[in-house]
Amino acid sequence: MSHKNKKTVPKVARPALVILGILLIASNLRAPLTGLGPILEFISQDLGLSATQAGMLTTLPLLAFALFSPVSSGLARKIGLEPSLMIALVLVGGGVLIRSGGSTLMLFLGTCIIGLGIAIGNVLLPSLLKRDFPTKVTTLTAVYVLIMGIGSTLSSSTAIPMMKLAGSMGITAIPHWAFALATVLLFPIISIIVWLPQLSGHTRPSADTAEIDSHSYLWRSAAAWQVTIFLGLNSFIMYIFISWLPSILIDNGYTENQAGYLHGVLQLSTAIPALVLIPLMAKMKDKRGMSFAMAVLGFIGILGLLMMPEHALIWVICFGFSCGGGFILGLSFVGIRTHDAHQAAALSGMAQCMGYLLAATGPIIFGSLHESTHSWEVPLYMTLSVCVVWGFLALFAGRSHVIVRSESGKDIIIDTPVHESIHEELKRLKNELALVTEERNELKKAFNAKF
User: Does the domain at residues 217-420 carry the CATH identifier 1.20.1250.20?
Assistant: First the structure.
Protein backbone atom coordinates (compact mmCIF):
# COMPACT_ATOMS: atom_id res chain seq x y z
CA MET A 1 0.00 0.00 0.00
CA SER A 2 1.44 3.34 -1.01
CA HIS A 3 2.02 6.06 1.55
CA LYS A 4 3.61 8.71 -0.59
CA ASN A 5 0.46 10.82 -0.61
CA LYS A 6 0.00 10.75 3.14
CA LYS A 7 0.12 14.25 4.55
CA THR A 8 3.08 15.13 6.75
CA VAL A 9 3.73 18.08 8.98
CA PRO A 10 5.17 20.87 6.79
CA LYS A 11 8.88 21.61 7.12
CA VAL A 12 9.38 25.30 7.81
CA ALA A 13 12.66 26.96 6.88
CA ARG A 14 14.17 28.77 9.90
CA PRO A 15 11.25 27.91 12.23
CA ALA A 16 12.78 29.83 15.14
CA LEU A 17 12.87 33.02 13.07
CA VAL A 18 9.29 32.45 11.92
CA ILE A 19 8.11 31.96 15.51
CA LEU A 20 10.01 35.08 16.62
CA GLY A 21 8.31 37.02 13.82
CA ILE A 22 4.90 35.68 14.83
CA LEU A 23 5.44 36.75 18.44
CA LEU A 24 6.63 40.22 17.41
CA ILE A 25 3.62 40.64 15.13
CA ALA A 26 1.43 39.62 18.09
CA SER A 27 2.98 42.41 20.18
CA ASN A 28 1.41 44.90 17.73
CA LEU A 29 -2.15 43.60 18.06
CA ARG A 30 -3.06 45.42 21.29
CA ALA A 31 -0.23 47.73 22.34
CA PRO A 32 -1.12 50.63 19.97
CA LEU A 33 -4.64 50.72 21.45
CA THR A 34 -4.06 50.15 25.17
CA GLY A 35 -1.54 52.99 25.40
CA LEU A 36 -4.34 55.43 24.61
CA GLY A 37 -6.47 54.84 27.72
CA PRO A 38 -4.22 56.27 30.46
CA ILE A 39 -3.70 59.57 28.59
CA LEU A 40 -7.16 59.89 27.02
CA GLU A 41 -8.18 62.62 29.47
CA PHE A 42 -5.13 64.73 28.53
CA ILE A 43 -5.89 64.26 24.83
CA SER A 44 -9.54 65.25 25.34
CA GLN A 45 -8.57 68.42 27.21
CA ASP A 46 -5.93 69.41 24.67
CA LEU A 47 -8.14 68.83 21.59
CA GLY A 48 -11.47 69.75 23.19
CA LEU A 49 -13.05 66.36 22.58
CA SER A 50 -16.45 65.53 24.03
CA ALA A 51 -17.01 62.32 25.98
CA THR A 52 -18.68 60.77 22.94
CA GLN A 53 -15.78 61.71 20.65
CA ALA A 54 -13.27 60.35 23.13
CA GLY A 55 -15.27 57.13 23.37
CA MET A 56 -15.13 56.77 19.58
CA LEU A 57 -11.36 56.38 19.83
CA THR A 58 -12.09 53.04 21.53
CA THR A 59 -14.96 52.05 19.26
CA LEU A 60 -13.34 52.92 15.90
CA PRO A 61 -10.66 50.20 16.02
CA LEU A 62 -13.29 47.60 16.91
CA LEU A 63 -15.40 48.68 13.94
CA ALA A 64 -12.30 48.50 11.73
CA PHE A 65 -11.66 44.97 13.01
CA ALA A 66 -15.22 44.00 12.12
CA LEU A 67 -15.30 45.61 8.68
CA PHE A 68 -11.89 44.50 7.42
CA SER A 69 -11.54 41.06 9.01
CA PRO A 70 -13.48 39.30 6.18
CA VAL A 71 -11.26 41.01 3.57
CA SER A 72 -8.06 39.77 5.18
CA SER A 73 -8.38 36.13 4.12
CA GLY A 74 -8.99 37.25 0.51
CA LEU A 75 -5.83 39.37 0.64
CA ALA A 76 -3.83 36.36 1.83
CA ARG A 77 -5.23 34.22 -1.01
CA LYS A 78 -4.15 36.83 -3.55
CA ILE A 79 -0.61 37.68 -2.39
CA GLY A 80 0.24 35.14 0.33
CA LEU A 81 0.30 35.16 4.12
CA GLU A 82 3.77 36.63 4.63
CA PRO A 83 3.28 39.74 2.43
CA SER A 84 -0.19 40.26 3.91
CA LEU A 85 1.23 40.28 7.44
CA MET A 86 3.93 42.72 6.31
CA ILE A 87 1.18 45.01 5.01
CA ALA A 88 -0.49 44.73 8.42
CA LEU A 89 2.72 45.84 10.16
CA VAL A 90 3.21 48.75 7.76
CA LEU A 91 -0.38 49.89 8.35
CA VAL A 92 0.05 49.71 12.13
CA GLY A 93 3.31 51.64 11.95
CA GLY A 94 1.90 54.22 9.56
CA GLY A 95 -1.22 54.60 11.68
CA VAL A 96 0.82 55.18 14.84
CA LEU A 97 2.88 57.83 13.03
CA ILE A 98 -0.19 59.64 11.68
CA ARG A 99 -2.00 59.43 15.03
CA SER A 100 0.95 61.16 16.68
CA GLY A 101 0.61 64.24 14.47
CA GLY A 102 -1.13 66.17 17.23
CA SER A 103 -4.39 67.18 15.50
CA THR A 104 -7.91 65.79 15.89
CA LEU A 105 -8.09 64.72 12.24
CA MET A 106 -4.77 62.86 12.39
CA LEU A 107 -5.72 61.28 15.71
CA PHE A 108 -8.89 59.72 14.30
CA LEU A 109 -7.40 58.88 10.89
CA GLY A 110 -4.38 57.20 12.45
CA THR A 111 -6.60 55.22 14.82
CA CYS A 112 -8.64 53.87 11.86
CA ILE A 113 -5.47 52.85 9.99
CA ILE A 114 -4.13 51.10 13.08
CA GLY A 115 -7.44 49.23 13.35
CA LEU A 116 -7.13 48.09 9.72
CA GLY A 117 -3.60 46.77 10.27
CA ILE A 118 -4.54 44.97 13.46
CA ALA A 119 -7.60 43.45 11.76
CA ILE A 120 -5.37 41.80 9.13
CA GLY A 121 -2.95 40.52 11.77
CA ASN A 122 -5.75 39.21 13.99
CA VAL A 123 -7.20 37.13 11.16
CA LEU A 124 -4.03 35.83 9.50
CA LEU A 125 -1.84 34.84 12.46
CA PRO A 126 -4.07 31.83 13.33
CA SER A 127 -4.00 30.85 9.65
CA LEU A 128 -0.18 31.03 9.57
CA LEU A 129 0.04 28.83 12.65
CA LYS A 130 -2.35 26.33 11.06
CA ARG A 131 -0.21 26.17 7.91
CA ASP A 132 3.32 26.08 9.35
CA PHE A 133 2.84 24.57 12.82
CA PRO A 134 -0.34 22.45 12.58
CA THR A 135 0.55 20.24 15.57
CA LYS A 136 1.42 23.21 17.81
CA VAL A 137 -1.58 25.46 17.16
CA THR A 138 -2.89 25.59 20.72
CA THR A 139 0.53 26.03 22.35
CA LEU A 140 1.72 28.78 19.99
CA THR A 141 -1.66 30.51 20.19
CA ALA A 142 -1.31 30.67 23.97
CA VAL A 143 2.24 32.01 23.68
CA TYR A 144 1.36 34.77 21.21
CA VAL A 145 -1.64 35.83 23.29
CA LEU A 146 0.76 36.07 26.24
CA ILE A 147 2.97 38.37 24.16
CA MET A 148 -0.10 40.43 23.23
CA GLY A 149 -0.83 40.87 26.93
CA ILE A 150 2.75 41.82 27.76
CA GLY A 151 2.84 44.32 24.90
CA SER A 152 -0.43 45.92 25.98
CA THR A 153 0.75 46.15 29.60
CA LEU A 154 4.02 47.81 28.55
CA SER A 155 2.20 50.29 26.33
CA SER A 156 -0.35 51.15 29.02
CA SER A 157 2.12 51.41 31.91
CA THR A 158 4.65 53.57 30.03
CA ALA A 159 2.16 56.07 28.52
CA ILE A 160 2.19 58.53 31.45
CA PRO A 161 5.99 58.28 32.03
CA MET A 162 6.62 58.90 28.31
CA MET A 163 4.35 61.93 28.37
CA LYS A 164 6.25 63.31 31.37
CA LEU A 165 9.54 62.54 29.62
CA ALA A 166 8.44 64.65 26.65
CA GLY A 167 7.83 67.54 29.06
CA SER A 168 11.21 67.18 30.73
CA MET A 169 12.94 67.06 27.34
CA GLY A 170 11.21 70.29 26.31
CA ILE A 171 9.57 68.79 23.20
CA THR A 172 7.31 71.37 21.55
CA ALA A 173 6.97 70.14 17.94
CA ILE A 174 4.09 67.85 18.96
CA PRO A 175 1.97 67.65 22.14
CA HIS A 176 3.41 65.58 24.96
CA TRP A 177 0.59 63.04 24.64
CA ALA A 178 1.44 62.65 20.95
CA PHE A 179 5.05 61.83 21.86
CA ALA A 180 3.79 59.16 24.26
CA LEU A 181 1.66 57.63 21.49
CA ALA A 182 4.59 57.77 19.07
CA THR A 183 6.81 55.63 21.32
CA VAL A 184 4.63 52.63 20.43
CA LEU A 185 6.15 52.89 16.93
CA LEU A 186 9.01 50.80 18.30
CA PHE A 187 6.81 47.67 18.13
CA PRO A 188 6.05 47.70 14.36
CA ILE A 189 9.58 48.86 13.42
CA ILE A 190 11.26 45.91 15.14
CA SER A 191 8.62 43.53 13.80
CA ILE A 192 9.08 44.73 10.20
CA ILE A 193 12.86 44.22 10.40
CA VAL A 194 12.52 40.67 11.74
CA TRP A 195 9.73 39.76 9.27
CA LEU A 196 11.56 40.98 6.14
CA PRO A 197 13.41 37.65 5.51
CA GLN A 198 10.04 35.87 5.27
CA LEU A 199 9.18 37.89 2.15
CA SER A 200 12.14 36.54 0.18
CA GLY A 201 11.55 32.96 1.25
CA HIS A 202 7.80 32.66 0.92
CA THR A 203 6.05 30.81 -1.90
CA ARG A 204 3.71 32.94 -3.95
CA PRO A 205 0.17 31.56 -4.26
CA SER A 206 -0.55 29.90 -7.59
CA ALA A 207 -3.39 31.02 -9.82
CA ASP A 208 -5.71 28.31 -8.52
CA THR A 209 -4.81 29.19 -4.93
CA ALA A 210 -5.62 32.84 -5.53
CA GLU A 211 -9.05 31.82 -6.72
CA ILE A 212 -9.61 29.13 -4.09
CA ASP A 213 -13.02 28.63 -2.50
CA SER A 214 -13.80 31.53 -0.15
CA HIS A 215 -15.53 29.07 2.22
CA SER A 216 -18.66 31.21 2.22
CA TYR A 217 -20.57 28.10 3.36
CA LEU A 218 -19.10 28.76 6.84
CA TRP A 219 -21.67 31.52 7.28
CA ARG A 220 -24.36 28.81 7.10
CA SER A 221 -22.54 26.42 9.41
CA ALA A 222 -23.84 26.02 12.98
CA ALA A 223 -20.38 24.90 14.12
CA ALA A 224 -18.74 28.01 12.65
CA TRP A 225 -21.31 30.22 14.37
CA GLN A 226 -20.63 28.51 17.70
CA VAL A 227 -16.95 29.48 17.45
CA THR A 228 -17.87 32.96 16.22
CA ILE A 229 -20.31 33.76 19.02
CA PHE A 230 -17.99 32.24 21.63
CA LEU A 231 -15.26 34.69 20.59
CA GLY A 232 -17.79 37.51 20.23
CA LEU A 233 -19.18 37.18 23.75
CA ASN A 234 -15.65 36.96 25.14
CA SER A 235 -14.73 40.24 23.41
CA PHE A 236 -18.07 41.79 24.41
CA ILE A 237 -17.30 41.29 28.11
CA MET A 238 -13.62 42.16 27.81
CA TYR A 239 -14.10 45.52 26.10
CA ILE A 240 -16.85 46.51 28.53
CA PHE A 241 -14.40 46.28 31.43
CA ILE A 242 -11.53 47.83 29.48
CA SER A 243 -13.80 50.84 28.93
CA TRP A 244 -15.74 51.07 32.19
CA LEU A 245 -13.78 49.39 35.00
CA PRO A 246 -12.09 52.61 36.26
CA SER A 247 -15.46 54.40 36.46
CA ILE A 248 -17.05 51.48 38.31
CA LEU A 249 -14.21 51.41 40.82
CA ILE A 250 -14.16 55.18 41.41
CA ASP A 251 -17.91 55.16 42.08
CA ASN A 252 -17.27 52.40 44.62
CA GLY A 253 -14.81 54.52 46.60
CA TYR A 254 -11.48 53.87 44.91
CA THR A 255 -9.14 56.75 44.04
CA GLU A 256 -8.16 57.47 40.44
CA ASN A 257 -4.67 56.07 41.05
CA GLN A 258 -6.09 52.89 42.59
CA ALA A 259 -8.55 52.51 39.71
CA GLY A 260 -5.70 52.97 37.22
CA TYR A 261 -3.61 50.37 39.01
CA LEU A 262 -6.45 47.83 38.94
CA HIS A 263 -7.03 48.61 35.26
CA GLY A 264 -3.41 47.65 34.67
CA VAL A 265 -3.92 44.47 36.70
CA LEU A 266 -6.87 43.63 34.42
CA GLN A 267 -4.69 43.81 31.31
CA LEU A 268 -1.87 41.86 32.93
CA SER A 269 -4.26 39.16 34.15
CA THR A 270 -5.46 38.58 30.58
CA ALA A 271 -1.91 37.43 29.77
CA ILE A 272 -1.56 35.02 32.72
CA PRO A 273 -3.79 32.27 31.19
CA ALA A 274 -1.18 31.70 28.50
CA LEU A 275 1.26 30.45 31.15
CA VAL A 276 -1.35 28.26 32.85
CA LEU A 277 -3.19 26.91 29.81
CA ILE A 278 -0.19 26.00 27.61
CA PRO A 279 0.50 22.60 29.27
CA LEU A 280 -3.22 21.84 29.65
CA MET A 281 -4.19 22.69 26.07
CA ALA A 282 -1.44 20.53 24.66
CA LYS A 283 -2.79 17.48 26.53
CA MET A 284 -6.56 18.00 26.29
CA LYS A 285 -8.08 17.35 22.87
CA ASP A 286 -11.60 18.27 23.98
CA LYS A 287 -11.63 21.88 25.19
CA ARG A 288 -15.27 22.05 26.34
CA GLY A 289 -14.54 21.71 30.07
CA MET A 290 -11.78 24.29 29.96
CA SER A 291 -13.92 26.71 27.95
CA PHE A 292 -16.86 26.31 30.33
CA ALA A 293 -14.52 26.96 33.27
CA MET A 294 -13.53 30.33 31.76
CA ALA A 295 -17.18 31.40 31.60
CA VAL A 296 -17.75 30.28 35.20
CA LEU A 297 -14.67 32.20 36.36
CA GLY A 298 -15.90 35.31 34.58
CA PHE A 299 -19.30 34.93 36.24
CA ILE A 300 -17.65 34.66 39.68
CA GLY A 301 -15.49 37.74 39.06
CA ILE A 302 -18.37 39.95 37.94
CA LEU A 303 -20.64 38.70 40.74
CA GLY A 304 -17.89 39.40 43.27
CA LEU A 305 -17.41 42.93 41.95
CA LEU A 306 -21.15 43.45 42.24
CA MET A 307 -21.51 42.05 45.77
CA MET A 308 -18.13 42.78 47.39
CA PRO A 309 -16.42 45.61 45.48
CA GLU A 310 -13.99 46.16 48.39
CA HIS A 311 -12.14 43.02 47.19
CA ALA A 312 -11.92 44.28 43.62
CA LEU A 313 -8.34 43.04 43.13
CA ILE A 314 -9.50 39.42 43.41
CA TRP A 315 -12.48 39.91 41.12
CA VAL A 316 -10.48 41.84 38.49
CA ILE A 317 -7.95 39.00 38.32
CA CYS A 318 -10.81 36.49 38.01
CA PHE A 319 -12.57 38.04 35.03
CA GLY A 320 -9.27 39.16 33.50
CA PHE A 321 -8.07 35.55 33.58
CA SER A 322 -11.45 34.47 32.25
CA CYS A 323 -11.41 36.82 29.26
CA GLY A 324 -7.74 36.13 28.48
CA GLY A 325 -8.26 32.38 28.68
CA GLY A 326 -11.44 32.57 26.62
CA PHE A 327 -9.63 34.56 23.93
CA ILE A 328 -6.80 32.00 23.76
CA LEU A 329 -9.27 29.12 23.51
CA GLY A 330 -11.42 30.92 20.94
CA LEU A 331 -8.42 31.55 18.69
CA SER A 332 -7.26 27.95 19.09
CA PHE A 333 -10.71 26.74 17.96
CA VAL A 334 -10.03 28.43 14.61
CA GLY A 335 -7.08 26.09 14.10
CA ILE A 336 -8.54 23.02 15.81
CA ARG A 337 -11.86 23.01 13.95
CA THR A 338 -10.55 23.70 10.42
CA HIS A 339 -8.73 21.39 8.03
CA ASP A 340 -6.35 23.78 6.23
CA ALA A 341 -4.91 27.30 6.35
CA HIS A 342 -7.43 28.73 3.85
CA GLN A 343 -10.45 27.51 5.80
CA ALA A 344 -8.78 28.70 9.03
CA ALA A 345 -8.35 32.21 7.56
CA ALA A 346 -11.98 32.25 6.41
CA LEU A 347 -13.31 31.14 9.82
CA SER A 348 -10.97 33.58 11.57
CA GLY A 349 -12.28 36.41 9.40
CA MET A 350 -15.89 35.47 10.07
CA ALA A 351 -15.36 35.07 13.83
CA GLN A 352 -13.46 38.32 14.22
CA CYS A 353 -15.80 40.29 11.96
CA MET A 354 -18.90 39.38 13.95
CA GLY A 355 -17.04 39.19 17.24
CA TYR A 356 -15.73 42.73 17.08
CA LEU A 357 -19.06 44.06 15.85
CA LEU A 358 -20.54 42.56 19.01
CA ALA A 359 -17.65 43.91 21.10
CA ALA A 360 -18.17 47.42 19.74
CA THR A 361 -21.73 47.42 21.07
CA GLY A 362 -20.71 46.22 24.54
CA PRO A 363 -19.37 49.48 26.05
CA ILE A 364 -22.25 51.44 24.45
CA ILE A 365 -24.96 49.12 25.83
CA PHE A 366 -23.29 49.00 29.24
CA GLY A 367 -22.96 52.80 29.39
CA SER A 368 -26.55 53.34 28.25
CA LEU A 369 -27.86 51.03 30.97
CA HIS A 370 -25.82 52.90 33.56
CA GLU A 371 -27.02 56.26 32.29
CA SER A 372 -30.68 55.22 32.31
CA THR A 373 -30.59 53.52 35.73
CA HIS A 374 -27.96 55.73 37.43
CA SER A 375 -26.49 52.54 38.85
CA TRP A 376 -23.87 49.94 37.94
CA GLU A 377 -26.02 47.03 39.16
CA VAL A 378 -28.24 46.60 36.09
CA PRO A 379 -25.37 46.68 33.54
CA LEU A 380 -23.33 44.27 35.70
CA TYR A 381 -26.30 41.89 35.91
CA MET A 382 -26.49 42.14 32.12
CA THR A 383 -22.86 40.95 31.84
CA LEU A 384 -23.66 38.08 34.24
CA SER A 385 -26.40 36.91 31.87
CA VAL A 386 -23.94 37.12 28.97
CA CYS A 387 -21.57 34.86 30.94
CA VAL A 388 -24.35 32.28 31.22
CA VAL A 389 -24.86 32.26 27.45
CA TRP A 390 -21.08 32.19 26.94
CA GLY A 391 -20.80 29.11 29.16
CA PHE A 392 -23.60 27.35 27.25
CA LEU A 393 -21.85 28.00 23.91
CA ALA A 394 -18.55 26.75 25.34
CA LEU A 395 -20.05 23.25 25.50
CA PHE A 396 -20.44 23.30 21.71
CA ALA A 397 -17.61 25.52 20.45
CA GLY A 398 -14.95 23.60 22.42
CA ARG A 399 -15.48 20.28 20.65
CA SER A 400 -12.55 18.77 18.73
CA HIS A 401 -14.56 18.08 15.57
CA VAL A 402 -13.33 19.54 12.29
CA ILE A 403 -15.74 21.44 10.04
CA VAL A 404 -15.76 19.94 6.53
CA ARG A 405 -17.90 20.67 3.49
CA SER A 406 -19.53 17.69 1.82
CA GLU A 407 -19.90 17.18 -1.91
CA SER A 408 -23.58 18.15 -1.69
CA GLY A 409 -22.60 21.59 -0.41
CA LYS A 410 -23.93 20.94 3.08
CA ASP A 411 -21.77 21.02 6.21
CA ILE A 412 -20.70 17.83 7.90
CA ILE A 413 -18.53 17.47 10.99
CA ILE A 414 -15.91 14.77 11.17
CA ASP A 415 -13.91 13.93 14.28
CA THR A 416 -10.29 13.96 13.11
CA PRO A 417 -6.85 14.90 14.46
CA VAL A 418 -6.06 18.61 14.38
CA HIS A 419 -3.27 18.37 11.83
CA GLU A 420 -4.96 15.98 9.40
CA SER A 421 -6.56 17.27 6.20
CA ILE A 422 -9.73 15.45 5.19
CA HIS A 423 -9.23 16.35 1.54
CA GLU A 424 -5.66 15.02 1.55
CA GLU A 425 -6.80 11.81 3.22
CA LEU A 426 -9.54 11.36 0.59
CA LYS A 427 -6.98 11.88 -2.18
CA ARG A 428 -4.71 9.26 -0.61
CA LEU A 429 -7.57 6.74 -0.35
CA LYS A 430 -8.61 7.41 -3.98
CA ASN A 431 -5.02 6.81 -5.15
CA GLU A 432 -4.82 3.59 -3.18
CA LEU A 433 -8.18 2.49 -4.61
CA ALA A 434 -6.89 3.22 -8.11
CA LEU A 435 -3.82 1.07 -7.45
CA VAL A 436 -5.96 -1.81 -6.18
CA THR A 437 -8.25 -1.50 -9.22
CA GLU A 438 -5.24 -1.49 -11.55
CA GLU A 439 -3.82 -4.61 -9.88
CA ARG A 440 -7.21 -6.30 -10.12
CA ASN A 441 -7.44 -5.53 -13.85
CA GLU A 442 -3.92 -6.88 -14.43
CA LEU A 443 -4.81 -10.09 -12.63
CA LYS A 444 -8.02 -10.36 -14.66
CA LYS A 445 -6.09 -9.96 -17.95
CA ALA A 446 -3.54 -12.54 -16.89
CA PHE A 447 -6.31 -14.95 -15.91
CA ASN A 448 -8.14 -14.49 -19.25
CA ALA A 449 -4.92 -14.94 -21.23
CA LYS A 450 -4.14 -18.17 -19.41
CA PHE A 451 -7.61 -19.72 -19.57
Answer: yes
| The pLDDT of residue 430 is above 60 | no
For residues 103 and 125, give the distance between their C-alpha atoms in angstroms, rounded to a whole number. Answer: 33
Domain regions of the chain by residue span = 12-212, 217-420
DSSP string, 300-360: HHHHHHHH-GGGHHHHHHHHHHHHHHHHHHHHHHHHHT-SSHHHHHHHHHHHHHHHHHHHH
What pTM does this model have? 0.71
CATH superfamily of 12-212: MFS general substrate transporter like domains (1.20.1250.20)
Identity of residue 352:
Q
Of the pLDDT bands very low, low, confident and very high (cuts 50, 70, 90), residue 447 is low
At 85, give phi and psi (nearest 5°).
-70, -30
pLDDT in tens, 32-80: 988 887 787 788 889 988 766 777 787 888 888 888 877 787 888 888 8
Which residues neighbour 296 within 8 Å (Cβ) at sequence distance 6 or greater? 387, 391
Q: Is pLDDT larger for residue 285 or for residue 44?
A: 44
Separation of alpha carbons 355 and 346, rounded Å = 14
Radius of gyration of the chain (CA): 24
